[in-house]
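Could you help me review a protein record that somebody else here produced? This is what I was given.
***
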Amino acid sequence: MHLKAPRPLWLLPLLLSLGCKDPDTVAVQNRHQTAQEKLEQGRNLLANGQPELAARVLGEAAGLMPDKTEPLLLQADAHWRSGNSGAAILALKQAMVVNPTETPDIKRKLAERYEQDGHLRQAIDVLMELRDKELLGDLDILRLAHLQTLEGQHEAAFKTLERIQRERPDDVDAKVVEAEILLAKGEEVLAAKLMDRLLTEQPALSTARILRARYFLQSGVSEYAEQDLAQLQGEEAVKPEVLTLKARVLESLGRHAEVDTLLTDAVTRYPQNADLIARLAEVKLQLGHPDEALTLVERALRAQPDSVRGVYVRARAQEQQGDLEKARVDYAKALSANPRFVPALTRMWRLEQQLGDDASAVTFLERLVEVNQASLEEKAALAALYAKLLLKPDQGLALIAEALKKDPGNPEYVDTQKALRKNLPRKKRPSGPTIIRGRR
């Protein structure tokens, strides 16, 4: 006769408790246990570098825990790490519906994700909504003002900064953003003095160092910009904005192979950042790899269909291939989306002049001067066009005087100055009868 082994004593209370519960209660307990197991499994997959699988498992956990935001927030992180920003944003929006009280914190995460992916306008919109409801802390206020400055919204940035400046006039971080706005507006002397003072008092202030590096790059002393950026450490050194600035500095120094390596690593780190992808495409174009460049452009436009830089680089490729009309259309499309987009303005005036439309070239050059992004060459080119078209001699003389200050012996600049002086309106002689007084 076969004898059953006795059940362990510790199992008896559990069996008794289960025996006393109705099936619905048991089903709820099982569901809860499965949900917790899925949640833990998703966490582990995310930690072990398997974001796609983690997103799927965390989605299952979210279905089993419809009143919890944790699995949705983790799922959003997993989607972002796997390069699916659309699904990540959807998960965050679902989390806001599940628990509206967490909406401000979730929206801050959403703004951060938008910023990392290069969607600055969307990030601004989210932060503005929170600001208007007085739900932003100081750090997010500064972040909003910074993003507004990057988008050319200078007066709006000053307005955003007002609260901190009013409550704490000497706040160091606010001073950095103030210097950034001044620099963007073209008040370079004031901005430079403020940056130097801040870094003298606090040499480790990374935000001021990044800003001064941008100032040095804009002023044509890229070596100093590189020195400032080299002092950044940790997460500060690998933010998309900083990586972009490093790439621009290296490019200005003619070190294109280093730019290629830097941006390739940056795109690996931020696979959905259309701006970084498009910048890498532009480098590939410069290095003579047009097919690779166009593949990257399409990838950038998939990540962000309205990517201004993606459309711009496509135009560069078309221009390089000799299709000037298609290039013109895409440059115009980029400028329609962002009228202050400097790279497209810089290419467009040259293209218009090449196509024989000097008046249009003047329009784009004037826009570069207006946003304080015209190079010395471009200021001189605008002055020369003013002389040729008999336009605005006073403004032209001011521009060419600036160019002659940097390069006094340039014969083209001297000729432009002479032509502009000839175009100045002649002073009118006094009208009326001339009275000739004789001697008494």
